[in-house]
Amino acid sequence: MEAFLNLDLLSNPWLAILFLGPVFYFLEKKFPYNKKNQNRKLADTIEDLSWQLGDNLYSFLWFPFYQILTVTILKFYMDHIHYPLAGTLRNRFDYDLGQFEFIKIHMSNVYVQFIVLLLLTDFLRFVYHYLAHVYGRIWKFHALHHSPTVVDWLTTSRVHFLESLLGFFYMTPVLFFFDIKPEVMAWIAVLELHMNLFVHSNINIELGFLKYVINNPKAHHWHHSSKNELEHGQNFSSIFIFWDFLFKTYYMPAQEEAPEQYGLANADVFPQNIFKRIFYPLT
């Protein structure tokens, strides 16, 4: 049981692809949501797996620099803000800034910590996802994920590694202000990975009242529709769909039929060559 619950194994995308891939493939063939959405080409599969590999390699190479950058920013704050401010306060107001500590939120119960951080990180992802569809500069990083014209469980892998890098930055405040147990963040990462596979899968599943709480394939397939039903798109949630209901970005046709077409509305301006796609966000 301990080996089965190894968080490193459960959060490994390649093991998920290897062991859960056949399950999703079977369910998609047996219970498809979009019956027209089953013509995945070998070239698409190779590209999706290539982006997954690229993301893993880039994260492996980038993470040490991310740690160095975090330390550098902290050192800049201490040298150019904290210590100068401390001297001013000490000299003019007789206040010792050395007594100052950053606000750190502590939650002793690990289950409460998990729920609070899951909701917070999921909300931050929702906000980022919405902004990625609103602002053109961020959209250039995100467009790759919307380029497939066939959406299924493996579409999860088609993410630009530079967009993954942005996740480090908008999640950093959470790590900075919360006293978090590492296993809590690890379990959240496990849930995110498997939810991503689930919501991209082409499975016709009925969740009953839970469709108003949990993100699901039907809702997320409409997010990947080539047509924006709302001004900037629809259904931006990752795990909890109620963010879309709350901020009025949810869309689902009355009969819950699948989208007619997936992909980019302006596919003609998006590079078709995978190497050009690497540099597209920087253009």
The residue fraction in helices comes out at 55-70%
Count of the domains: 1
Largest sheet features = none
Shape: globular
The total beta strand count reads 0
Radius of gyration: 21 Å
Structural class by SSE content: mainly alpha
Oligomer: single chain
Question: What is the number of helical segments per DSSP (H or I, 4+ residues)?
Answer: 10
Terminal Cα span: 49 Å
The percentage of residues in β strands lies in under 5%
Q: Which spans have pLDDT < 50 for at least 5 consecutive residues?
A: none
| Average pLDDT number | 84
**H-E order:** HHHHHHHHHH
Write the layout of secondary structure elements.
Blueprint: H1 7-10, H2 13-30, H3 42-93, H4 110-134, H5 136-142, H6 161-177, H7 182-200, H8 217-223, H9 242-246, H10 274-279
Helix pairs in contact: 3-6, 4-5, 4-6, 4-7
Briefly summarize what is shown.
This protein has 283 residues and is mostly helical. It contains ten helices and no strands.
Which key phrases capture this entry?
mainly alpha, 283 residues
Task: Give structural notes.
The protein is an all-alpha fold and 283 residues long. The protein has one domain. The chain is built from 10 helices and no strands. α4 (110-134) packs across α5 (136-142). The longest helix is centred in the N-terminal third of the chain and has 52 residues, at 42-93.
